[in-house]
Specification:
The protein is α+β, with helices and mostly antiparallel strands and about 300 residues long. The chain has helices at about 1-10, 20-35, 85-90, 90-105, 125-145, 165-175, 180-190, 230-235, 245-255, 275-285; strands spanning about 55-65, 65-75, 75-80, 115-120, 150-155, 190-200, 205-210, 220-225, 240-245, 260-265, 270-275. It contains ten helices and eleven strands. The strands form three sheets. A five-stranded antiparallel sheet has the order 4-3-2-1-5, covered by helices on one side. Strands 7-6-9 form a three-stranded antiparallel sheet. It has a three-stranded mixed sheet with strand order 8-10-11. A hairpin with a 3-residue loop joins strand 2 (about 65-75) and strand 3 (about 75-80).
Length: about 300
């Protein structure tokens, strides 16, 4: 991608590029690769609308557990997105406060879209700078620190791959031993899942996690699905939902003190992890610095 090559070639032999320079270079490269209008099939016999590549890729800036995305829409300009799983990984009180901070910074969410987006940032160099400013502001708001270095990359939109988790659950059902259970933990941490949401009954709170109808010893229970078929089996209305990584799911279980996590609870292959197991996984991820330690 020419934008990245040009920037880093110019900095070769000098100090390493700053996170801001890296971010701007990735935004420039994204526009070059994905930000141009794609040929329209309109008017051709039998033409079908095709989802363009720019709808599948994002510039991702990450600081520890916190993640902010940016992309460019042809003729509309830059958009910065704070994925909703950032909020899910917080306590309910912290998530509600952060939503207010994001709205004050110009981020909004609409309809069944669970994520907070800031649009109208413009095009060209000024739009690029505005997008970089919005990304850094969002990372500061999420992490509650300023000036810390962050990483940047261009990623394809992640979708859950259920096979590892389903295979580990089947193995646990057969063997019922510690090694099989460890494989389930591994599949959880390294996987991603569909998490059902609902419209919050509290004014101004937007969307929140749709919990399992029964608690466990007074603690909230969540349900996740490995694929859309399992999500459709879980409830009649698929929307709203979000895709969440296993690490963020463990962080959320720690922050919300879940009593249990059900996996595909209304499907043929599913399982359940109890709160103690989830907290033990979280402590392990803290020890290896994947999750930040709680204060």
């Amino acid at each position: 991608m020419m934008g990245l090559r040009d920037l880093f070639a110019g900095l070769r032999g000098s100090s390493s590029p700053s996170p801001r320079q890296t971010l701007e270079a990735h935004l420039e490269a994204f526009v070059e690769r994905f930000g141009k209008p794609e040929p329209s099939p309109a008017g051709r016999p039998g033409a079908l609308p095709v989802r363009g590549q720019q709808a599948e890729y994002r510039v991702v800036a990450q600081l520890a557990l916190w993640r902010v995305e940016a992309y460019h829409l042809p003729e509309r300009g830059f958009v910065v997105c704070v994925p909703a799983d950032n909020l899910v990984a917080l306590s309910a009180e912290e998530a509600a406060a952060l939503q207010g901070v994001l709205r004050a910074a110009g981020f909004e969410r609409h309809g069944h879209d669970p994520h907070f987006r800031r649009k109208g940032l413009g095009t060209g160099r000024s739009g690029l700078r505005n997008a970089a400013d919005a990304v850094e502001r969002a990372l500061s708001d999420l992490s509650r620190v300023e000036g810390r270095p962050y990483t940047v990359c261009i990623e394809r939109e992640p979708l859950p791959d259920p096979e590892s988790m389903l295979e580990s659950i089947r193995a646990l059902v057969k063997a019922k031993d510690d090694e099989s259970r460890r494989r389930v933990y591994e599949s959880l941490v390294n996987g991603s899942f569909y998490l059902p949401l609902r419209v919050s009954p509290s004014p101004g709170h937007g969307l929140e996690v749709d919990p399992w109808p029964e608690q466990l010893q007074g603690a909230v229970v969540w349900a996740v699905c490995t694929d859309l078929k399992s999500l459709d089996e879980l409830r009649q209305q698929r929307q709203p939902y979000l895709v969440i990584s296993g690490v963020r799911l463990v962080a959320a279980a720690r922050a919300r003190r879940l009593g249990a996590l059900k996996i595909n609870p209304r499907s043929k292959v599913g399982g359940e992890l109890y709160g103690g197991e989830l907290q033990a996984i979280a402590r392990y991820l803290e020890r290896i610095a994947v999750l930040p330690a709680l204060n």
